[in-house]
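Long-time lurker, finally posting.

We've been working with Carboxyl transferase (Stomatobaculum longum) and I want a structural starting point before designing mutants. I don't trust myself to interpret raw outputs, so I'm hoping someone here can both generate the C-alpha cells and explain anything notable. Sequence follows.
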Amino acid sequence: MSHINDSTAARRIREILDQDSFVELGAYVTARSTDFGAASEEASSDGVVTGYGTIDGKLVYIYAQDPEIFGGSVGEMHAKKIRRLYAFAVKMGAPVIGLIDCAGVRLAEATDALFAFGSLYREQALASGVVPQIQAVYGLCGGSLAVSAALADFTFMEKDAKLFFHAPNAISGNTEAELDTASAEFRSEESGTADFVGTQEEIAAGIRALVGILPSSNDDDDTYGDCEDSLNRLVPEVVQASGAGVLRAISDDGFVCEPGQHYGCSVTTAFIRLNGCTVGAIAAASGEVCFRGIEKAARFAKFCDAFSIPLLTVVNSAGFEKTLCNEKRLPQAVAALINAYAEATVPKVTLLNGTAHGLLANVFAPRAVADIVYAWPNAELALIDAGAAVKILYASELEKAENKTAFFEEKKAQYLEKQGSAMSAAKRGYVDDIIAPETTRKRVIAAFEMLFTKNEEIPAKKHGTV
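Top reply, 14 upvotes:
Generated this for you. Predicted structure of Carboxyl transferase:
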C-alpha cells in the first residue's frame, strides 16, 4: 500500500479484504485544480483510495473515500479514479465495493467535479447487471452520493452514518430533531435505500459474507460450494415458521442473508443456500402485503435474474394492505413484480404453504411463470376467501337456512374442496405436487437440481418498459 496506509480509508479497506491482499492503484494521483486555495499537494490520492484485493480468495475492486482529505469530497480526479476501477471490474468480471464517507461534490472544482460525477453515474448504470455493486456508508453520503448509493445493488450503513438527498432541515416543515431523514433507521425502514445497518465491524463481516455468496459477474457463477447439511433432512419445524423462518428451516445449516430486512417487512427477500448453491428467495408471509414489500421483491427478482441466481418463492398471505398509501402505489409496484417474474429466465420454484387468494396468487410466481409449483396439503389457492364466496353464492339460501352456522360451514367446506384447496388446484394443473411440509427442503432441492440446465429465452426486444 502507498504512503497513506494509515489513513481511515485504508484501514477500512484492510478490515474487509483478506490480509495483505490489497494492491493500490493511482496512489499518486492528485487534484488538477488549484483554484480557491486548493493546492494539489494537499489532496494526495485526491481523497479516495482505489485498488483491488481478495475476499476469501475472490477478486474484488474496492475504493474508500478519505474524510481526512477535503472531507472525502468528489473532485474531477477523484471520480476519474473510481471510473477506472469500474472499467477494470467490468473487464475482469469482479464485484465493486465502495466505502463512502464524503462531504459532497468539491465546490472548488465546480463544473469539472459536477460532470465527472455524471460520468461516474454512467459507469455505475452500465455495470448494473454485469458485476455486483456494493456500497457501505460510514460517514456522510449526501446529494449526488445518495444517488450513487441507490445505484448500487446492496448498501450498508453504519449506525451513526448520514445518507440524504436533501438535508432534513432543508425539507419544508421538517427538522432533524423531528424526523432524521438522513439516519440509518429512516433509510433502512422508510426509504429502503439501506439494506443492512450495523457497526463498522458488522459491515466488514457482512460485505465479506455477501461477496462469498454472490457470483463475481453475470458470466461467472462461482457461488457453488460444498454442502455438509443432509440433502434429505426433514424440517418438521417449518410448519410453525413464517417468512424468514421458513427459509432458515430449509436452507443449508440455516443460512439466511436478508437484504432490506427492515423495509417492506410484509415480504422477505433473502439469499439462502441449497445443496451448496446460492438461491434467491422471496417469501410473502402471513398477513397483508404492502407496496414496499412488492417493490423490494421486484428489485430483488431482477437482481437474481441478472446474475443467474435461481428463485424460490414462498406464498402465504392474506392479500394486500387496504390503505390510502398502498392504493396509490400498489398498481405500479405489482406491475413491476409481475414483469420481473415474467422476464426472469432463471429456474423458478414456487411453494404455496398457506393462503393465496385472487390477484396475489397471480403476482407471486404463479403457474404462468414458475417452472415447478409445490403446495402443502392445507394450502388454499382460490379467487376469494371461501367464507366470502359462500356469502355471495348462497346469499338467499343462507338467509332462509334454519341453522345458518351449520349451512355456512357446510357450503364453505364444499367451496374449499371444489375451488380453493391444494388438491383442486392440482387437479387443474396449477400445482405440480402436494408435498408434506417436513419434506420441503429435499423436494425444493430436487426441483432445482432438475432445473439446473434450464435454457429459456424471452421474446426478442431491447428491454421492457415496466
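Before you design anything, note these points.
The CA atoms of residues 225 and 293 lie 30 Å apart.
The mean pLDDT is 90.
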